[in-house]
Write a structure and sequence with these properties.
Distance between the termini: 30 Å
Strand content: 5-15%
Oligomer: single chain
Length: about 120
């Protein structure tokens, strides 16, 4: 790839996914939002099943919950891959902030936004 001679810094956020040092903002995709309603319906059904017996594995709620989580995982992975590829192709040097997410989760006001899929934990699943 040709060199661009450009560099920037990245700040991860809760309202925007990324804020670049030159002012560009990359919006938060909120991958979990469309699936939350289905998960709120199916997860309590799954939670009432006893662990171990075959009936739990056969329950349709198990497959539905797994399918919803897989969709979120795939969407997050796709978004992270496309975003990182665009940034790497457009810039030569990238500086990232060093976050201690484990300490930030202790804050009750921010813990849900940080811990939920698509929050500051940038792993796809």
């Amino acid at each position: 790839m040709p060199t661009t001679g450009r560099s920037f810094g990245v700040d991860l956020g809760l309202t925007d996914f990324l804020v670049l040092s030159h002012g560009e903002r990359i919006a938060h995709p909120r991958h979990m939002d469309p699936h939350e309603r289905a998960l709120k319906r199916d997860q309590p059904i799954l939670a009432r099943k006893q662990r171990g017996p075959a009936n739990r594995a056969k329950a349709t709620a198990t497959a539905k919950v797994a399918r919803q989580h897989a969709k979120v995982c795939d969407a997050r992975g796709d978004f992270l891959h496309k975003t990182s590829t665009d940034l790497v192709r457009g810039f030569d040097r990238i500086a990232l902030e060093d976050l201690t997410v484990a300490i930030m989760v202790k804050n009750r006001a921010l813990s849900t936004a940080i811990s939920r899929p698509g929050g500051l934990s940038s792993a796809p699943c």
